[in-house]
Amino acid sequence: MAVLLLWWAVVLICLLLLTAGGPWFLLLPVAVVGVLVATNTLIIVRRTGSEENALEPGRLARADADRDDGVAVWAVRSPRRRATDRARRTGTLAYVGGRLSFTVDPGRGTADDPLADVTVLDAPARQLELGPRPRWLRPALAVTHEGSHHLFDLSPPFDLGAGAVGAVVTAAWWDQLVERGARPPTT
Predict the structure, then answer these.
(1) Which residue has the higher pLDDT, 44 or 150?
(2) How far is residue 115's CA from residue 150's CA, in Å, rounded to a whole number?
(3) For residues 104 and 96, is the Cβ–Cβ distance under 8 A?
């Protein structure tokens, strides 16, 4: 939240400079940053940012112990890193009773989506192979199950904090899935 307030301050100061006769070449950067700040404000107000998907330590262990206490978060799934937008699907990444699953949301505006309400992944954690641990430049959770590759992004693509916060959030999922029996990559 403090970072967002800092960005708002930057936008307002630049707008003040522009209205006071400052250099007009600042107009485009101020407009772009202003749009990003406005969309990030909406993310915080609507509570849909990557920090909403954060796991507290031991959260997946509790979901194993109590089937009524599962974890479900919003995510975007694609079959590979450079997948086209047609291959990406939003849905619910859930962990309950030792199983990780992803169910595709009914498409917004695409009622003819054949994958709407389909569970594309449903497997015990011990049968999952994980990709490399998420980090700043690759903040996505890579999972392979029986030869099918799944790449889960837990942060909106236009989130200013997605690179840093998204990587931390996804790394927590990765760490806890390893604790629950998922196999990390061998080097």
Answers:
(1) 150
(2) 15
(3) no
The count of other CB atoms within 10 Å of the CB of residue 52 is: 15
- CB neighbourhood size of 72 (10 A): 14
Q: What percent of the chain has pLDDT over 70?
A: 81
Closest among 97, 72, 69 to 152, alpha carbons compared = 72
Provide the whole-model pTM: 0.71
Q: How many domains does the chain have?
A: 2
Domain that holds residue 63: 50-179
Question: How big, in percent rounded to 5, are the helix, strand and coil portions of the chain?
Answer: 40, 25, 35
CATH code of the domain covering residue 102? 2.30.29.30
Res 50: pLDDT: 61
Tokens of 1: 């939240």
If asked whether residues 12 and 76 sit together in one domain, one would say no
Overall residue count recorded for the chain in this entry:
187
> Are 107 and 116 in contact, with CB atoms under 8 Å apart?
yes
